[in-house]
Every structure is written in C-alpha cells, then in structure tokens.
Write a structure and sequence with these properties.
16 helices
C-alpha cells in the first residue's frame, strides 16, 4: 500500500515558470501520466480561481510549444505523446488566442530566419527537420486557415512555399518531406481554394523522378534538375514483381525513424511515393476545377502522366493514373467565352435635381409659422430644459444621500469598535484583579 501511494500522482500542481521546471514536472512519466499532470495543472490554476492565473497559463502554453518541438527531435519518436499534447495546446490557445498567436509567430519567425540565412549562404539547402514540419501542422490545427490574411498562417504558408522552391531533393527522405508539405498545403487551402503554384510544380517534379529519362520530354522547374543521380530516385529496380504488390501508406514518422536514408531505397517506398503524389494531384485537380486557367495549370501534369511507365505499377496505381488523366482532360473540349462588352449598360442610379431657393432666409421657417406654433416650440424647449435640470438635481440629491448613509454607517461601525475595545479593557482589568486576589489567598 505504501509503495502504491508513493507511485500515485499528486492532485495539485503549480504552473512551471521556466522550461527546466516543466521538464522536472513531467519527466520520467508515461504519456498518460504526463497528460494527467497537465490536466491537473490547468484545473488547479484555472483563470477563474485567482487573479494572475491567466498569465500563468499563457506561460504554460509557450513552454508546451517548446516541449512539442523537442519531442519531435527525440528518437525514438513519441508520436502518441505528441498527438495527446495537441489537445492541451488547442484548449490553451482558445483561452488566450492573441498571446498564443504571438508565441507561434515568434517560433515560425525564428525558424524561418535560420532557414533564410542558410539559403543566402549556399544553393544546396537541406529540407527542415520534423520539428518544423510538426509546427506547420500545429498552426493548421490552432488557427483558421481560410482567412485572406492571418498573422500566423500567412507567414507559415510563405515559409512552406520557400521550402518547396529552394530545397532540392537529394534522397528519398527529402521527397517524402516535400510530399508532406504539399499535403499540409492542401489542408491549408481546402476552404479558401488559393492557388499555390509551388505545389503543382513539386508534384510534377515527383512524377518526373519516376519517368524513363531516355524518352522523357517533360518540362519542369527548379528545385528539380534534368541530370544527375537525383533524377533516378524513384526508378523501379524489379519491374516484373511489382504488379501484384500492395501499396502501404506513406508515414512521415516512419520516414524520420529510419536511421539511414538508404533504407528507404526500395521499390515499395517508390510505389508509395507515386501513389501519394497521384492522390494529392487528384485532390488538387478537384480543388481547382472551377478556375478559368485549369487546362494551362495541369497541362504539364498531363504530359508527365503520359511519360510514366504504367505497365510496371500495381493495378490500383494504374487505375489512379487513368482516372486522373480523364479528369484533367475533362475540360479540353469545353469552349471558352471571349472577353466582350455587356449587351446592355447597367442601370444607373436615379438622381434628383436639387431644389435651390435664391432668396433663402435662415429665420424664414420661424417667421412662416403661426404665433401658436412658436409658443408651443418655446414651451417644449423650456420643458426639456427644466426636465434635464430636474434630473441633474435628483442625481445630485441621490449622491448626497448615499454619501450621508455611508458616513452614518462608518460612524456606527467606529462606535461599535470603540465599545468593543472598552469591553475588552474592562474584562482584562477584571481578570487581572481576579488573578491578584487568587495570589493573595495562596499566601495566606
């Protein structure tokens, strides 16, 4: 029983003031126990219990954001703990949205500063780590992504577009990271339907990595190159034994869990990457279906699809390629409306000619009225003035009465305290007399 009591968590916790206190608070516990500790910290220090608790919880949010990024860099990756931590971050963000936005904005600003300094020094920019990718995911969960401009979401989207533009994929992990950023972009724009050309260009480049280079005439843009070892990243080695193979979903946690990138150099991984790319292109084509430039946006994607050697891929991927090609070709024969003037002019607003009086007198309204009407206006004005004065006097009287009542109450309280003090003094003197008489009896 004693050992079980020692293992049991306390029911009250204080809010940690710095990051070291947070680590000492949750360190050494399992994921469930850590969530229990955070629950009790928030309940014991709720903003409705005492003044200053709101600022303490805001500090807790900033510490948990830092802890969230450190968990992403730990190996082995504790993905369950990260998922459970998001709930606390979301609820704390709803309590103080402005302070939470400032915290995430500063984190994104610092990460982008490091990334931009690397871009200025060299052209071979590495893809970011898992902590930055999970921060991108956290922003989409905490803040609205459909706003035209947002203090946190807009810089995050610019950061993600810079990654897709400047980072050149040199290994299989880089390709998976780029696809993860593309999937995050689709989550950001699924309501606003903003056009992101970086995503279209990157997905086209991923298809290029899986095409045959001897007969490929696909056009692409940086960060992809037409030559080098990187152009064969998604080339299949054993084409005969892949037609009946099942497709496993691509997991970013598994990608970062692999110690060596050569572990990802398998045909199974290549097929999963192509399947993920086709799935994202399917969603992107449905999202931009109503754009007037739909054909021009996806014309290079159609060309890249024709360059894929579909016969060596599993049947499910072949069906995805055919379905995507049909959807991209659905608007090929649709005619376009020419730019032309409207058939009839829009109806204009009706304007009325102003009535202008050349000999206008300011006192004409008063003179034109009858004597009885003028007297009524004077009486109405006097009545309003007297009414305002009466209300003002009543307000003054009520304030005076309230002050008098307060003073009387204070006087009564002072008199009561004085009488109580006198009683205490009298009782103290009587008690002293009793003790003195008792001492005299003892002497006798």
């Amino acid at each position: 029983m004693v050992e079980e009591a020692k293992k049991e968590l306390p029911y009250t916790f204080g809010v940690p003031c710095n990051y070291d206190e947070l680590l000492s608070l949750v360190g050494g516990y399992s994921a469930d126990d850590q969530m229990t500790i955070l629950d009790r910290v928030r309940k014991c220090n709720h903003s409705s219990l005492a003044e200053g608790n709101k600022e303490k919880l805001e500090t807790l949010f900033s510490l948990l954001v830092e802890y969230y990024g450190d968990l992403a860099n730990e190996r082995p990756l504790k993905i369950d703990l990260i998922d459970k931590l998001v709930r606390h971050l979301y609820e704390l963000c709803q309590q103080s949205p402005m302070k939470s936005a400032e915290v995430l904005q500063s984190v994104i600003h610092d990460k982008y500063g490091e990334f931009d300094s690397i871009c200025e020094k060299t052209t071979k920019v590495k893809y970011p780590g898992l902590d930055i990718l999970l921060y991108f995911k956290l922003v989409s969960l905490l803040f609205p992504t459909s706003d035209f401009r947002h203090s946190v979401v807009t810089p995050t989207m610019l950061f993600m577009s810079q990654i897709l533009t400047h980072c050149q994929p040199t290994n299989h992990r880089d390709v998976a990271v780029g696809l993860f950023v593309c999937s995050l972009f689709l989550q950001y724009i699924h309501l606003s339907k903003k056009f992101v050309p970086e995503v279209v260009n990157y997905l086209q480049g991923v298809l290029y990595l899986g095409t045959r280079k001897e007969d490929s005439v696909c056009h692409f843009l940086p960060p992809f190159k037409p030559y080098g070892k990187q152009t064969q990243l998604l080339a299949l080695e054993k084409e005969e034994s892949l037609r009946e193979r099942e497709i496993s979903p691509l997991s970013i946690s598994q990608v970062f869990s692999s110690i060596n990138t050569e572990e990802l150099n398998t045909d199974q991984f290549h097929i999963s990457v192509i399947a993920t790319c086709l799935h994202l292109l399917q969603q992107l084509s449905e999202l931009y279906l109503e754009l007037p430039s739909y054909r021009e946006i996806f014309c290079s994607i159609k060309l890249a699809l024709t360059q894929l050697h579909t016969a060596v891929y599993p049947k499910s991927i072949q069906e995805k390629i055919d379905k995507l090609h049909q959807q991209l070709s659905s608007k090929d024969g649709s005619p376009r409306s020419f730019l032309q003037k409207e058939k009839k002019k829009p109806p204009s607003m009706k304007f009325f000619e102003p009535k202008i009086e050349e000999d206008y007198d300011m006192d004409s309204k008063r003179k034109n009225k009858s004597k009885r009407m003028n007297e009524m206006q004077k009486l109405t004005y006097k009545h309003r003035r007297e009414m305002k004065g009466a209300v003002r006097e009543i307000r003054k009287d009520s304030q005076f009465i309230a002050r008098q009542k307060l003073q009387e109450q204070l006087d009564r309280d002072a008199e009561r305290r004085q009488k109580v003090n006198e009683l205490h003094q009298m009782l103290a003197s009587q008690e002293g007399d009793c003790k003195r008489i008792g001492r005299k009896k003892v002497k006798f």
